[in-house]
Structures are given as structure tokens and as C-alpha cells.
Amino acid sequence: MQKIIPVYYSEYGRYITRFRAIPFHIDCLKPVERRILLTLHEVARTKLTKSAKVVGYCIGNLHPHGDQSCYGTLVNLVQQKFAIGQGNWGSPGLIDAEASSYRYTECRLSDWVEELAFKYIDFVPWENFELEKEPLYLPSPVPLGLIGEGVITGISFYRTLIPKYKLKDLLTRLIWLIENQKISIQQDLADDHKMDSKTYGPEIQPNIKNCQIHEDSLNQFYSLLFHGTGSINIIPNGKIENNSIKILGRAPNSTFNSLEKDKDELNIYLNCLSKDSVNIEVIPKKRGIDLTELGNRIWKDYLNKKFNFDCILCNEEGMAVTIGIDMLISNSYLAWARAVLLKNIDAYERLCNKKFEILVVQIIRYIIEITKANKISQIVDKFNELCQTKSMLIEMEEYDLENRNWIKKTKNITKEDIEEICSKKSIKNLVETEIDFKQVEKDILSAKSSIDHVDVECYKYVKELQQKAKF
Known about the structure:
Strand 10 (238-241) and strand 11 (244-247) form a beta hairpin. It is built from 16 helices and 18 strands. By secondary structure, the protein is α+β, with helices and mostly antiparallel strands. Among the domains are: 30-136, Topoisomerase II, domain 5, CATH 3.90.199.10; 237-297; 346-468, no CATH class.
């Protein structure tokens, strides 16, 4: 048992790291978050859908664990605006209001997530991890899991604590990395590309709503960007007004439970003034209390919080690695740009196949015209005769993804190609259907140009996205 238990425990720890607790090093999403977003894309893309249906689809097709953990993640995604919700999805306060049961709420995927993460979803690796096939990551120019408010937490054999950022700030940082050649689409995701910490670039701060970051922590921002570690002190907003103290913010992953428990010892009343945001009124029970001194004590003992961030993420091998935010942004961008490239290659190959089909149709038309053939066998026999006197080779170009260049190749038209086209369409359609060969050639040149200039197009898209970003 002494030999077996450590082995099983290690396997369990790796499983938890890979499939439960730790975000992936490309999209910064935990598996359950990715699975729910995929579910929303498939069943709740355009219209509000009962949350029970979303949860049931997710755990039935992708997630082998409980409905409550799945719905809890969905609630968080709605609160982070990844999904649009209808009904009671919970709200912060002196005592946080919980979301209604999933049988009472509805939701759908937010449009910005659909645009950002699912445009190239068919061009990333899909694998059968636990139940049905699912994408290894969601392709987005910046890590989807880094967008939002607060922090990402996870515990397995490792404890990860990662700050979230505004989308606009992440895109600003990405643009700087591209412009200063820190990352390039010519890099492979497996390359050991390193960020140059000597050149700092734009500063981006963690997105902590209604809180301030203590000035002693300002030098930690770049430590997070470069190394993935840093200590930051969070101070919730507040003010003194009308003989009372207003608490207007709350540090992530914290509650007012301790303050509520000690209110008698502090000789204060606590009132919740809002159901939609943190707005707590602190009123002294006795007159003549120094509100500044009282506020300093409350903030110091109950509200201020220090975060020791450690950006631990899971790689393809299921290993936990600590990486900086810059590297995480780089990983996401390179994976997304590769998906864009693969889609452009797919479009080019489809057009090449269409051109090949047109050339086959032209040969069939020629045979029909000179022989008046009305059967497939007659067309094939005449084609075999033509092959003895004429070359049936077509010159084409193929994109070599590994070396990022074009390779010339030839493709031979065979009798099987003739039979396949004839079986798809009637002889009448083959003769009468109009063919715009010049337009197809023009489309092929355009598709080839898109492949050659994919790095420029990706950069332009990121710039436009950054200008349009509202948060």
C-alpha cells in the first residue's frame, strides 16, 4: 500500500490539475469554463435558453461531474458578462444574494465572446478527453480567461492566483508586443520565445472593481507581466458622508462576514443600501466617535487585502507551469493566428478543388461535344483514349505550413475524377451550367494573398478590436 497509494495520489493530482482546477496556458480557461462556453455556443448562441438545458447539455456531453459545480461556473460567467442572463443571477452586498436555481434562469452567449472565441473554433485541435470531443482551447487574440474582474483561483497540488484584466488593456499590451517584435506569427507555439523584460511597454493593471491598488504595489505590475508572480495590496473604495462611513468596494474573494460578526464589538450598525452593487453604510452606535479613526481600523482589519499572485497554468502535457502574463498573451495570440492561417489555407484548398472540378467539367464537355456521348461509360472510354495522346496534368501550388512557403506540385486527372463528377451531376447539367473560370482564378489569387499576408491581417484585426473595445 505504501508503494501504490503515492502512485494513485500522483495520478489523481495530475488529473485534477489538467481537467479541473488549473487554467490552460493558452486560453487561461479551466475545463468546465471552456465546456460551458462551448455549450452556450452550441445551444444558446442567439436566443435566451433555460439554464437547466445549458447545464444538462454540458454535463451530459462534456462534463462528468455535478450540476451544481457546473451551474456555479455558469453564474460566474454571467456575472463576468461572458453570457447574458435573465432572472436573478445573484448580487453583492452585506450578505451576497445567491442566484436562483437553474430552472428559473435563462441565458445566452454574449456577442463579443462569439466573435472573439468561436470564429475559428473548427481550426484548433479537438480531442476526446472525458466524454465527447471538445476543443483543446478557445482561439482568441488574447486569453479569454484573463478578461473580466477580480482574480482566478485554483487549487490542486498547486495553488494558482491570477489577476483578470480589461479586454482593452490586454489588447493594448498585445499590440505593443507585436509592434516591438516580441511575438510574431512566424513563431511556432512550441518555440522557446522569451519576453525581453528590459523594455517595459504599457502598464496594465489588474481589473479590481471599486478598489484601489496601494502605491507600494505599483512596481509589481511588471513582475506579473514578465514572471507571473507579484504581491499587490487591494484597498476597497469608501468615504465619510453624513456622520457615517460608506464602503463602496470589496476585494476579490472576500466577504463582510467578519465585519458583520464583530459589529457589536466595534459598536456599529451595518446597513446595505443597494441590491446591485457594494454600498454598505457603517453607523456608530455612539455619538462623538472619530469616523476617520474608525474607518482606518475597519479598512485595516477587515477590508484591505494582500494578494500574492502566482500565475500557475497547465500545459498540453498536464504539467503545472508558472508563466508571465506577457507569455500567456503570446501563447493565445500565436494559437489564434495559427487558427486564422489554417482557415485561410482551408479556403484556398477549397477554391483549388473547385478549379480542378471546373477543369474536369471542361474535359467532359469537350468529350460530349465531339462524341455526343450520353452515358458515363462512353465518356470514360473517350477520356482514356485522350489520355494516350494528351497530358492530363494540372500545375497547382500547395502551402507548406511547417516551412511557411509555397510548393509547386502537379495533379493528374484520372478516370475516377471523370466518374465522380459525372455521378454528381446529370449530363444535361454538365453541359448547361455556366462556369466562371476567371472568377475562380481571381478568388484563388485573393486566397493566396490572404495566406501570404496573414500576419498583417491579424495585426489589423487586433488594432480594430482594441479601438472598438468598450471595457
